[in-house]
Every structure is written in structure tokens, then in C-alpha cells.
Design a protein that fits this description.
The complex is a heterodimer of chains A (213) and B (302).
Chain A: E1 10-16, H1 19-25, H2 28-38, H3 45-52, H4 56-68, E2 72-79, E3 85-91, E4 93-98, H5 100-105, H6 109-123, H7 137-155, E5 159-160, H8 163-168, H9 171-187, H10 190-205, H11 208-212
Parallel strand pairs in A: 1-4
Antiparallel strand pairs in A: 1-5, 2-3
Helix pairs in contact in A: 2-4, 3-4, 6-7, 7-10
Chain B: E1 2-3, H1 9-25, H2 27-60, H3 68-78, H4 82-117, H5 122-131, H6 133-161, H7 169-189, H8 193-198, H9 203-216, H10 218-244, H11 252-285, E2 291-292
Antiparallel strand pairs in B: 1-2
Helix pairs in contact in B: 1-11, 2-3, 2-4, 2-5, 3-4, 4-5, 4-6, 4-11, 6-7, 6-9, 7-10, 9-10, 10-11
Classes of the chains: A alpha+beta (213), B mainly alpha (302).
Chain lengths: 213, 302
Amino acid sequence: MNSENVPYPMKDLEIITDPNTIKVLFDKVRALIVFKYLVNEEMTVKQLADSIGKNPGNVLRHIERLKSVGLVQQVRTEKTITGIVQRYYRATAREYRLGIADMIKANGGMRTFAKDRLRNMIMSLKVYGVSIPEIRMNDALSMLEQLIERENQISSELMITNSEFWNSLSKHQQEDASRLMRDVMVAGDAEYIKLKDKWCSFIMSFSDTSEKG
Amino acid sequence: MKRVGKWNLRNYIETIKLSVHYTRTYYLSIFLAILGVFVITIVLFLLIVLIGSIPLSIYYGPFDEIFDVFDSIGDALSGVNDVEAVGIILFAGSALLAPFLIALGALFGIGQEVFEGGTATAEEALLWYRQKFSRLASGGIIQFFFIIVPIGIEYIFASYYFPDQMPDTTTLTFLVFIAALWFLFCSGMLSMVFPSIVDGMSVISSIKNSLKLTWHNSGAVFSIWGTFSSLGLLLLGPVIIQEFTDVILLTDQVYDLYILASALVLILLILPIYVLSVSRTYLIISDPNIEEEQEIHTEGSQ
């Protein structure tokens, strides 16, 4: 298939903010279908069923659910020489991330989960000699949330326009290409740079090395 | 790979042949699926009749048995004007038909499973039944309305022009012909609704999708629909002729047996082949860029 004619270009990164979508992914088989298989290649229901070791009907119903929340799309249909009509499915993006800001705005467990995750990220900086005092923790959380959110926004605009070539790359090559391109994208965003500078100054002000200096 | 292109005779024959083939291959699963769905449908149908009998029994007095509810619907129809009668038919018809429509819709889950997954399991039909219950019910009822409302309007107009007597035979034949034509045409136009619902679309999108697919692929949709509705009509022909004309084709003893045999052939044989044919047609026409795998001819091959 000519990559120029790919009707559904794949996103490099998709931010999941809808709680319903997150709920759909709580199912292990659906998560496996998306994250292990369909982010990497286009597959038919039969191929997925064989790979996962599940009944094709079961996989078909999972695919239908994933399609309904926009995580999976049908990319092409092929009629085999035996007359079988098989549809190929692929994830809508190469990588999915949970939208931290939306999760923090949400109620209940999701908010706590998101806040805890950010807090743990900040706490883990201790391994590099960066200790944020509890009194400044809210500032750190707010800055990091804004930074991640902006980075996600920019990265999610990145489209994989040549799917055929993308599929021919190894996983490492795909990741390298994605990282390089995301760097280029964020480097050109003034708001991101401003947030990044603010975040770097903040972190460095609590770093052991800056105290010694 | 080459594009499949427009629907042609080859596609049609291939669809019917493969549907017969897969019905035969997976017949046990399909039969069990129909049986399972049928049991649930009957339970649901009885539940609806029971619920419907509560307000009716308050109005008409207590029923001796549950099926007396149909007599009271008949009483209600005889005591009202034509517009109200059409309303009652629509309301009661949609409530009573809903379980059967969901059952029919759930079978399309099996159809898609056969062509996309290369297998069929009875339990999947029941899971489609559960997963798509409300969408299949609403989709079925909307189809029923689409088909019946214009026929009801025709009936109201006919009753207005012939208030106290039956229309003459020519007019009656014409009116019945128009109603039957609409029934067949509209059912064909909407034949892609259930496959669309199974494919994950909302009810409204499925109706739109069915109309759009039929508009762009009328040959595909109507060749399949025409084949199976003709088979159905052919099978029920003697009953229809005997019911609506004075011609006696079947004796009383054979008549009931024939109806039972026809119903079994329709439900257990023609229905599964129809479902598979529609599912395959849907898969083909729903992607205008569908590609066809080419047979590789190696050296020395015939």
C-alpha cells in the first residue's frame, strides 16, 4: 500500500484524558492488544487471536470496544484468495500517556493516583542529590504538571506520516526517531522553553551541587 | 494487491457460496447460538407480555392467562379510529418485536466473527446479545418504524377514502403491492444496520451508514437482500396465496405442518446463510479501498 495514501496517519503520542478510555484499558487483554501489538504493527483479528491465544470472537469484541473509544482504527481491508475478508487494525498512536492535568482535575482515586505519581517522580530526584522541602512541594508539583502537560500537548501533534517506513524500523530505531523529533518539536515552543527554564532553575536551587557551589 | 473494484457477479456468487460453506462448517456453533438466543428471546418476550399485561389487566379486568393480552390489544384496535390503531400497532409491535430483533442483530456478531476471525462460537452470539442489547433493540425498533410508519400512513389514507367499505379488488391489490414493495425496498436499504451496530457504530450512525452504503452499493445490497427475500417469499408463497386468495393449495392437515417446516427452514437454514452473506457484503462495501490478494502463479503451475 502506498504510504502517501494512508488514510489514517498515526500519532506519535496520544494523551488519554477521558476516564472512559482509561477504564477500557483497565482490561488486561485490551491493554495487551494496544500496547504490545497494535502500536507496533497492523494486525487482523485472527493474527491477534493467534498471538494472544484467545478466541477470535473475543478479540473482535475487544477491538470493537477499543475502536469505540478511538484507541484503535481500521487501516485497510483485504480480500484473500480464499474469499475471506480480513480487516487490519492499528493503534491510533505509537505511544499513549495519561493526561496528568486532567487526572488531577478529576475526582476521587484518579486525582490521588496522578498526584502521588508526580510526587514520587519529584521525590525520586533525591538519587541525584535534589531534595525538595515539603513546604515547596506544591510549587514543584504545579511546575512539573504544567511542564509535562505542555510537552504532551506538543508531542501529541507529531504525526507519523510514512507508516510503511515506520513499520520497517526496529523498535529502538522507532524510539530514537521519536525522541529526536519530539526534542525538535519542544525546542521550538516558547512556552515550553519558559516552563523548562523555570523548572530547571527551581530544581537546581535545591540541588546538593548548587549548595556546595 | 489490486483494488476489488465494483461489486460484480463474481462477488455475489462468491459471497453466497462462502456463506453456504461457512454455515455448513460452523453449523453446530451457529445452531447452538440460534438456540441460545431463541431461549433468551422467548424469556424476554414473555417478560414484555407480562409487563404489558399489568396496565391492560387494570383497564380490561384480570386475564385468565397471559396470552389474553393479545385479545385485549385486538379489543383496543377495534374500538379506536385508524390513526390510533396505527399508533397501537407501532407501540405494541415495537415492544413485542424488540427481543426478536435483538436476537437477529446478535447473530450478525457471529457473521463478522466468521469472516474476520475465521471461526464461530455459540457463546459469542450470547455475548454480542448482552454487549449490544440496547443498541440492537433501538436499532431494530427504528427499522421497524421506518418500515411500518409509511405503510400505516397508507392505511390511514385508504381508510379516509374508503370510510365504510373495502376498496375494490384492483385498488386493494395496488395498495398491498405498494406496501409490499415499500417493505422490501426499505428492509433492503436498512439491511446494513445490524452489521454496522456490531461494528461499533451508534444507532443513528448505523442507520445513516446503512443508507449510505446502500446508496453507493445498491447492486451489492439488493442482490443479497433480493435473493434471500425471494427465497423467503417462495417458501411462504403457498401460505400467503392461501391466506389472501380463495385458492387452496394445502389441505388443513398439511397447512400447519408446512408452516412449521417453513419456519424451521427459514430460521435454521436460510437465516444463518443470509446473516453470513450480509456480513461479508458489509465487510466488502464498507471499505472503498479494499484490496484483493492475488494468486501467485509459479513456474510450472497451471
